[in-house]
Amino acid sequence: MLRLCVAAVAVVWLALGTATAEPKPVSLWHVFNLETDMIYGGIKSFNESQSEYRIDPRLVPANQLVAELIKAIATGSVPDLVTLDNPVVASFSAQGSLLDLTDRVSKSKQIKPDVYFKGPWASGMWKGRILAVPRDANTLALCYNADMFRAKGLDPANPPKTWTELVADAAKLKDPAKNVFGFGFSAMQAEEGVFQWLPFLYQAGGSIDHLDSPEAAESLQLLVDFVKSGVASLDVLNQRQYEVTNTFMAGNTAMVMCGPWELPRLRNEAKFDWRLSLLPVKDGKNIRASSLGGYDWVVPKDAQNPDGAFAFIEFMAQPQIVSAGWNTGRLPPRTDIVIDNPQWPQAYAIYHEQLQSARARGPHPQWPDLSRPMATAIQEAITGKRSASEALTDAAKKIQPILAKTPL
Amino acid sequence: MVGSRSPLLFVFLAIPILYLLALVAFPVAYNILMSLQDVTLGNITSFARPFVGLDNYREVLGDPDFRKVLLNSLLFVAANVIAQLGIGLAVALFFSQRFPGVHFLRGLLLAAWMLPALVVGALWKWLFATQYGVINFAIGSPVHWLADPSLSLASVTIANVWFGMPFSMILISAALTGIPLEPYEAAALDGAGPVQRFRYITLPALRPALLAVACLITIYTMRAFDLIFAMTGGGPLDSSNVLPLFSYQFTFQQFRFGIGAAIGTFAFFIVFAVALLYVHTLRREAVE
């Protein structure tokens, strides 16, 4: 009897306790600095919609997030939820640093793996287990200055569709007297440079596991020739993606490789008629391709509050929130979501179509070790230190032993 | 009281020793330990990781990029020491003259030193831009300051000299005010000109201070990271990369923690040797 009494009191006390308790904090690290990003609205409505959890966000600069997370893992005090750039996710999942979300996803009503695009979803998989859920997707398309097209007698309704047209148009658009380059891209000694070269590699019919192929060399030679002929600036070696967009917005470059995350900036700062187009294809090959980027939700292994974290991942996977991502140029990573009346309708149509042919980087646990030799090869070829094929053969020698152990 | 070993004495001795052990000795020892292990994200939380001996060091020394970066670091430091000392001394001498607004101008120069290095780096990246940069506008030819591998190290050096020089200048200025005026008066009476007064009075009196400043510049520039990170990221082709940034890239971009630690060890021993030299000069200065 006494035992029953104690049990009853305990149950009542627990029920009261949960009812009156403060919401449990869920620490979230993210990189989105535009206040119009879906994450801000999402956090606000999540915190207001229930009283069990409270999201405590921390904004971390994008280029410091990985370093911060590594430090947090090393010291054992990890956040509950992190947004990670998708090519690095595999490095964390393969080392067992992330919480396995497989069971939670299989029970989830919101998150159905089959509605996600293959590339973004694959970035969160490791050995058949689900370790990340895509938040958004992005890809590269061609952004061009229609005013400059008109000034040079080109038809702005007819942007380059093939490599040959790209080369010809870029050469016509180049105007050294006005400091205008025809074409711009990032060739930084960093992941960004690789991200921008990969579309050309795929379009040429090349692949990362055969960098010593003539197709791969052709794709790099295209970029080399742009710089050699003065159609692109040698400064591409030192330009980050946002700096490439800066040169476009300043009217110093007529066409650039551009991701949809730049759309808010283009709207506010580009004072001319700018438009988007699908990336050209290589003549004769006709392979449509681009790089896939985007952010994944991950829960570090030792998170204090994984349930709260997953509740928020589910909340953020609702179609109306994922669609709101487009307000800052973040594409839904899902095939079942088509945005009606999107902002920037022309850009949306292009990016939505380009996403169908965007290829994921990896997933590979040693993606950084694959990426670095490629970045080096790009820089060696553009500086003229080596020919494109020599530089890529060298990269292939470094990459192939890694791929022999763990294929892509 | 004097000579009695009160327990309090040991407490006061223990505080700095514990401080040094916890905040200096431990990180250094931990870094060396990591450089001898195979560290991955999976085992980074524990101390017991596979011991690999000197494998990391062998890999680092066998990497031609490392040799390039080590040489870059030495060149970067040497150029900074020479330029910051030379320009700092010239500017300090200039501001030791009496003219209206001298204190204000000297203070203004120091403002540059107070800016965050990332901001200074972004600023110089802009100044050095090939097409729209002020520097190429001034010299009238399109030089690829940051994109040309043969120039990028010189460009980041120029930026770092601009950034660090005011600090050297203030230290030298302080040493200048410490020189008594009498020898100058006596020398002027004996007919010594300004060059001779500088050569035989100012320079010998400044010598210990200059040595100390040289050591400080070496230590500061061996650690240079943010400025180069913002200007070139170490590129193109590691032509402007230095040891701390190289170590950071291996650790946080390539996830090669052991390699990053091994590179860090090289940087540590160089700084440590210079720090010893610095302490030695300070002691000699105190004796003199």
N-C termini distance of chain B: 32 Å
Q: CATH superfamily of chain B, please?
A: MetI-like
Q: Largest sheet of chain A, order of strands side by side?
A: 2-1-3-13-6
Strand content of chain A: 5-15%
Set out the fold topology.
The complex is a heterodimer of chains A (about 400) and B (about 290).
Chain A: H1 2-20, E1 24-30, H2 38-49, E2 53-59, H3 65-75, E3 81-85, H4 86-94, H5 102-107, H6 118-123, E4 125-126, E5 129-130, E6 133-134, E7 138-139, E8 141-145, H7 146-151, H8 163-173, E9 181-184, H9 191-203, H10 214-228, H11 241-249, E10 253-258, H12 263-269, E11 274-277, E12 290-293, E13 295-298, H13 306-316, H14 319-324, H15 345-356, E14 358-359, H16 367-383, H17 388-405
Parallel strand pairs in A: 1-2, 1-3, 9-10, 12-14
Antiparallel strand pairs in A: 3-13, 4-5, 6-13, 7-12, 8-10, 8-11
Helix pairs in contact in A: 9-10, 9-16, 10-16, 10-17, 16-17
Chain B: H1 7-35, H2 55-62, H3 64-95, H4 102-114, H5 117-127, H6 134-139, H7 152-177, H8 182-189, H9 194-222, H10 226-231, H11 243-253, H12 257-287
Helix pairs in contact in B: 1-12, 2-12, 3-7, 3-9, 4-7, 7-9, 9-12, 11-12
Note the main attributes of this structure:
heterodimer; A: about 400 residues; alpha/beta; D-Maltodextrin-Binding Protein, domain 2; 2 domains; 17 helices; globular; B: about 290 residues; mainly alpha; MetI-like fold; 12 helices; about 0% strand
Short structural summary:
Chain A has 408 residues and is α/β, with parallel strands linked by helices. Chain A folds into two domains: 22-137 and 294-352, D-Maltodextrin-Binding Protein, domain 2, CATH 3.40.190; 139-292 and 366-405, D-Maltodextrin-Binding Protein, domain 2 (3-Layer(aba) Sandwich), CATH 3.40.190.10. Chain A has helices spanning 2-20, 38-49, 65-75, 86-94, 102-107, 118-123, 146-151, 163-173, 191-203, 214-228, 241-249, 263-269, 306-316, 319-324, 345-356, 367-383, 388-405, and strands spanning 24-30, 53-59, 81-85, 125-126, 129-130, 133-134, 138-139, 141-145, 181-184, 253-258, 274-277, 290-293, 295-298, 358-359.
